[in-house]
Automatic annotation (TrEMBL):
SUPFAM superfamilies linked: Carbon-nitrogen hydrolase (SSF56317)
Biased composition (Low complexity): 330-341
Classification via NCBIfam families: nitrile_sll0784 (TIGR04048)
Top-level taxonomic group: Bacteria
PANTHER family on file: CN HYDROLASE DOMAIN-CONTAINING PROTEIN (PTHR46044:SF1), NITRILASE (PTHR46044)
Pfam families in the cross-refs: CN_hydrolase (PF00795)
Protein name stated in the entry: Nit6803 family nitriliase
Organism expressing this protein natively: Jiella sonneratiae
Amino acid sequence: MQADSFRTDTVRAAAVQIAPDLSGRTGTIERVLNAIAEAADKGAGLVVFPETFVPYYPYFSFVLPPVMQGAPHLKLYEEAVTVPSPETAAVADAARRRNMVVVLGVNERDHGSLYNTQLVFDADGSLALKRRKITPTYHERMIWGQGDGSGLKVAETAVGRVGALACWEHYNPLARYALMAQHEEIHASHFPGSLVGPVFGEQIEVTMRHHALESGCFVVNATGWLTEEQIAEIHPDPKLQKGLRDGCMTCIVSPEGRHLVPPLTAGEGILVADLDMRLIAKRKRMMDSVGHYARPELLSLVLDAQAARPMHRIDGADEAADPAERIEAPKPAAKTEAAHV
């Protein structure tokens, strides 16, 4: 199907709200694989997981002072994933076997740094996109490094053109516009959940519905969840524990800004909804923010899409390139086998 053709098909999407395994990546990956199987059994062709779900979101950084974060930060280094790794290979294999597009948030370790990374696995198991959050928020800046413009791109997948942003990247209108200008059809997003309080969930809902309206695309958003036992494990002080509750808004929104199913704001569960792709043309007929409603001669976006690297050789050899980036390179022939991720 050509990118500019009118789509009339339907995509069944799933958004997952579950708790991680705070002991490490092995247990959380098992939960991811179980959720993929459950979503597939419900007929989903796309499933979205919460922000940095593997091994877990660094909730400790929100309630602990910096001087006390050393031990949990180092544990996060030990439990973070590399790309590729056995963990990403397991998810890729599940995507291939279930013929499903999987959007997974991970803590990615790249030598001495951690990143808030979004992975989009296509239905054949190949890694269609690996991107890093461009600016960690507030307490997160002590945990993660910054991503770059190379990840601000839309991936062609079995379910259509998928764009992805994490959490407060949605408050950067230019980051959102970069994906809108590439005509994303489904926007996969996620937030940590179980954070800040009820106001966070309210803000997420406004943000997701607005992006759906402004971009004329579907939004599939997943937030995480913590049990009371996990909250107590992260911090014993009841006053600080208040900052680790609520803030959940797992939802699936149409290009008209409407919830396709009631959002999930507490507890664990999987939302499933059918995305009628005809609604994209219906919305954009009225307002295409990067087409007939745009004024590029007045206002336009400049995106530096180069990967930021700490060293550039002038002898022609590019040893500074991240080996993980090579698995994202376009393939010369049609994909027939899963990529090694």
